[in-house]
Amino acid sequence: MLRYRETGELHKDFHGSMNAAVEFVGERYGREGLREVFRNTAQKVYRSIYEKLKAGDWSELLEHWRYFMEREGADFSIAVTDTEAVMTVRRCPAVAHLRKLGMVPSAYFCDQTVLLNEAWCEDTPFEAVTEITGEGCCVQRIIRKHSTFKDVKHDSE
Questions:
Q1: Architecture of domain 14-156
Q2: Which residue, 14, 61, 107, 157, has fewest beta-carbon neighbours within 10 Å?
């Protein structure tokens, strides 16, 4: 069961505040400052997702992705195989809402996604690879590290 399930009215204007926040931190502290913010968010605020990933279980992350994308009306799909989970975002609701408000997304805006995914995968059997394919479009991959399986095999030999 997803621990971080917000209910009630959806306040998309939050994306405008996040746009300003990532711009502020990014301009003053650079990408490393943003990395630290999103590392703390991923590993402390969303701790149960991180703990499951450390245990080799991506189910809560996938539920998190699906819940929030559906809640905000994103155009997206998620495909899962034994070795990777791929979320393709064809229309990001956050970027679409910024544009609706007449705002320009910060150059750091997508770092929220990129750095959060990377932090979730830190010290886990997974790696995150995010490709920004256009404004409001990306492909997010959570990939099982092959070396993990090889290491297990070698340990038992």
A1: 2-Layer Sandwich (3.30)
A2: 157
Predicted confidence (pLDDT) per residue in 10-53, tens digit: 567 788 899 999 999 999 999 999 999 999 999 999 999 999 99
pTM over 0.90, yes/no: no
Q: Residue 80 and residue 95: Cα distance in Å, rounded?
A: 25
Q: What is the pLDDT of residues 91-140, one digit of tens each?
A: 999 999 999 999 999 999 999 999 999 999 999 999 999 999 999 999 99
Q: How far, in Å, CA of 73 to CA of 75, rounded?
A: 7
d(CA 45, CA 100): 29
Helix (H) or strand (E) holding 71: helix 59-72
Give yes or no for a contact between 129 and 143, defined as CB atoms under 8 angstroms apart: yes
Are 138 and 144 spatial neighbours (Cβ–Cβ below 8 Å)? Answer: no
Please tell me the chain's helix, strand, coil percentages from 3-state DSSP, rounded to the nearest 5: 55, 20, 25
